[in-house]
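Thread amino acids onto this structure.
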C-alpha cells in the first residue's frame, strides 16, 4: 500500500489575485486550453486560473519561454486538483508554436475521500513535556468519513476546532500543526490536528479604555457575558456587534487581558473603544415629476444626556407633503434585546383628491428574534382632519400595528442577493366615533438574485406588494388610510396615488385593496456607474380582494445609478404602457438616493 504525506503545501491552493495589463490591439497572446475534464464544477475551477497562464503584456519571444510558462501552469493545475480532492490526478501539456496555444490534458482520477480524523490537544505549545488534555465537551471537526477530501473543508475544520475551544473557556486556543496522510491505494485521506488550548478561564471584570463622553454603564448594558461564567468567544463577538449598533463608537477592539493578569481563573476582558461624533446632521434632495422637488433634513444625537440613547429630529418638504417628526430611542428596554421608540409627527398631505392635516404620537417596541427576523409592535394615535372635495371630517384613530420582518439581503442600500419580507397588520378604531373601525394588512416581498455569477454585474430584482383594508366600507375609511398605487415607490410612469378607482372627475378615490409589483434588471458597469431596466404593474381595487375586472396599469423605463459611499444615486425615467386618456402624463422622472426597492 503506497502512502504519501501531505502537509500544508499539499493542501493550500495558491490563488492569484492581481491585475493584468491589456496587450496592444491585434497582438496575439498565449492561450491555455483544458482538455479531459467533464466535471463541470472542477472544469470551472481549472479554467479560472487561465488568466494567470501568461501575465506579460508581450507575447513570448521563443518556444522555450512559452514552455517555461506551461510548466509553471502545469504545477498550478496540479495544486488546484489536489485542493479539490484529486490527489492522484495527472497533467500534461502540448505546445502549438507559433500559434501560441497550449493544451493541458488532465486526467483527474477519483476524488479522494476523508477517512480517519484525529484531534490531539495540549495546554502548552511543546507537547513533549506534558500530557494531552480533554476539554469539557467533545470537539466536532465536521469532517465525516466518506466526504470529499477538499482542502477548504480540511482547513475549515481546523478553524472550527479552535473556535470550539474558545467557546469552552480557552481564549488563547490556537492550531499547532495539521498532518494529512493520503492513501493512494484506497483513495482516502487521514488528518490529525494538533491544538494548543492554553489555560481555561472565566470572564473577569471588564476594562473600558478610551471612554470620554459615554458613561461606563452605557457600555456595561451591552455586555453579553456574565462575570464568573466560562469564557465564550461568541459572547465577546455578540457584545462587539451590539456596541457597533449603538452608533457611539467608530472603533472597537475586545480581547482578553494577558494570562499573567488573571486572578485565580478570572481573566479581565479589555474593551478598547474610540468614540465617534455623537451628533449628526444629514440633508437629502429628491425630484419626482409627480411630487416635484423635495428636501429632507435630520438631526440626531446618539448619546442624549450621556445615556447612550438617540434623539432624532427629522423634517421633509415636498410639493405634496410637509412633516416634522421627533424620535426618542431607548435601547435595551426591559431586556438587552428590546428597543423602544417614542415618536411624534405633525404633517400635512395635499393630493388631487384629498387634503390631510394630522398629528401622530405613539410608541414602538422592536424585538429581534435573530440576526434576520424582527418583531415590532406598539400603540399609536392619529388626530387628523381630512378634506375631500368640499367636505371635511375629523378623525381620532387609535391603532396597534404589529409588524414581522425578515431581512436576508447582503446590502440594505444596494442589495445583490437575498430577500426581505415585511408583513404589517394594524387595527384602527375611531375613539370619537366607535362606529368607524377597520383593519389594514400590507405585505411586501423583495427578492434579489445575481445573474451569470458575481463578476457579471447583473442582478435581477423583484418586488411584490399586497394590501387590504377590511372591516369598513370604502367611504368610512379615511382617505389618507385607503390603498393607492402609482409613483416612485409603486408603479413608475404614473403619478403619485393616481392608479386605482376614479371618481366622475377622473380623480383617484383610493381602494380597499392594492396589488403592485416590480421587475428590475440591474447592471453595474464599474465602481461608479450602473444601468437599470424595469417593468412595474398593478392596481388598486374598491373590493377587499383582487378584482379581475379592474384594469392593470403597466409602466416601464430605464435608469442610471451613480454609486456613492452612502448608496446609489438613482435617476429613473418611466412611461405608462397603457395610459388612460386625459389622466396620465407621457413620462415621469425620479431622482433620489437608494435603489427603488
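Threaded sequence (597 positions):
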Amino acid at each position: 500500500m503506497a502512502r504519501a504525506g501531505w502537509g500544508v503545501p499539499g493542501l493550500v491552493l495558491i490563488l492569484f489575485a492581481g491585475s493584468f495589463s491589456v496587450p496592444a490591439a491585434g497582438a496575439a497572446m498565449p492561450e491555455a486550453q483544458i482538455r479531459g475534464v467533464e466535471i463541470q464544477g472542477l472544469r470551472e475551477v481549472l479554467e479560472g486560473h487561465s488568466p494567470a497562464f501568461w501575465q506579460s503584456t508581450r507575447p513570448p519571444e521563443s518556444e522555450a519561454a512559452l514552455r517555461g510558462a506551461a510548466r509553471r501552469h502545469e504545477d498550478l493545475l496540479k495544486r488546484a486538483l489536489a485542493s479539490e480532492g484529486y490527489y492522484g490526478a495527472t497533467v500534461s501539456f502540448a505546445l502549438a508554436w507559433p500559434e501560441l496555444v497550449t493544451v493541458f490534458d488532465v486526467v483527474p482520477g477519483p476524488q479522494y475521500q476523508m477517512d480517519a480524523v484525529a484531534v490531539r490537544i495540549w495546554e502548552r505549545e511543546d507537547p513533549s513535556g506534558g500530557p494531552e488534555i480533554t476539554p469539557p465537551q467533545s470537539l466536532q471537526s465536521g469532517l465525516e468519513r466518506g466526504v470529499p477530501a477538499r482542502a477548504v473543508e480540511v482547513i475549515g475544520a481546523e478553524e472550527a476546532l479552535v473556535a470550539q475551544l474558545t467557546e469552552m473557556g480557552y481564549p488563547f486556543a490556537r492550531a499547532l500543526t495539521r498532518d494529512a496522510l493520503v492513501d493512494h491505494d484506497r483513495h482516502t485521506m487521514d488528518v490529525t490536528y494538533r491544538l494548543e488550548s492554553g489555560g481555561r478561564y472565566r470572564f473577569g471584570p471588564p476594562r473600558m479604555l478610551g471612554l470620554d463622553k459615554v458613561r461606563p454603564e452605557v457600555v456595561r448594558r451591552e455586555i453579553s457575558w456574565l462575570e464568573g461564567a466560562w469564557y465564550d468567544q461568541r459572547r465577546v463577538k455578540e457584545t462587539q456587534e451590539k456596541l457597533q449598533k449603538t452608533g457611539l463608537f467608530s472603533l472597537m477592539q475586545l480581547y482578553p487581558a494577558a494570562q499573567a493578569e488573571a486572578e485565580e481563573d478570572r481573566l479581565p476582558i479589555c474593551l478598547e473603544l474610540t468614540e465617534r461624533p455623537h451628533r449628526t446632521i444629514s440633508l437629502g434632495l429628491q425630484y419626482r415629476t409627480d411630487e416635484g422637488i423635495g428636501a429632507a433634513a435630520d438631526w440626531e444625537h446618539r448619546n442624549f444626556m450621556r445615556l447612550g440613547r438617540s434623539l432624532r429630529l427629522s423634517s421633509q418638504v415636498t410639493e405634496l407633503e410637509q412633516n416634522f417628526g421627533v424620535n426618542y430611542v431607548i435601547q435595551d428596554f426591559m431586556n438587552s434585546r428590546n428597543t423602544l421608540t417614542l415618536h411624534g409627527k405633525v404633517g400635512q398631505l395635499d393630493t388631487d383628491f384629498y387634503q390631510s392635516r394630522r398629528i401622530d404620537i405613539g410608541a414602538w417596541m422592536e424585538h429581534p428574534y435573530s440576526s434576520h427576523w424582527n418583531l415590532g409592535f406598539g400603540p399609536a394615535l392619529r388626530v387628523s382632519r381630512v378634506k375631500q372635495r368640499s367636505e371635511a371630517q375629523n378623525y381620532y384613530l387609535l391603532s396597534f400595528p404589529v409588524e414581522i420582518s425578515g431581512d436576508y439581503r447582503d446590502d440594505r442600500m444596494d442589495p445583490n442577493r437575498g430577500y426581505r419580507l415585511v408583513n404589517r397588520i394594524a387595527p384602527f378604531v375611531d375613539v370619537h366615533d366607535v362606529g368607524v373601525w377597520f383593519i389594514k394588512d400590507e405585505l411586501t416581498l423583495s427578492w434579489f438574485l445575481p445573474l451569470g455569477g458575481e463578476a457579471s454585474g447583473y442582478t435581477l430584482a423583484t418586488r411584490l406588494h399586497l394590501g387590504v383594508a377590511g372591516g369598513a366600507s370604502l367611504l368610512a375609511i379615511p382617505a389618507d388610510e385607503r390603498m393607492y398605487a402609482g409613483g416612485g415607490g409603486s408603479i413608475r410612469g404614473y403619478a403619485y396615488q393616481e392608479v386605482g378607482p376614479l371618481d366622475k372627475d377622473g380623480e383617484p378615490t383610493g381602494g380597499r385593496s392594492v396589488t403592485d409589483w416590480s421587475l428590475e434588471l440591474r447592471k453595474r458597469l464599474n465602481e461608479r456607474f450602473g444601468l437599470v431596466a424595469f417593468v412595474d404593474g398593478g392596481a388598486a381595487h374598491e373590493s377587499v380582494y383582487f378584482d379581475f375586472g379592474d384594469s392593470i396599469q403597466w409602466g416601464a423605463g430605464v435608469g442610471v445609478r451613480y454609486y456613492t459611499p452612502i448608496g446609489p444615486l438613482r435617476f429613473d425615467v418611466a412611461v405608462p404602457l397603457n395610459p388612460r386618456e386625459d389622466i396620465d402624463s407621457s413620462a415621469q422622472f425620479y431622482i433620489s438616493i437608494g435603489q427603488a426597492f
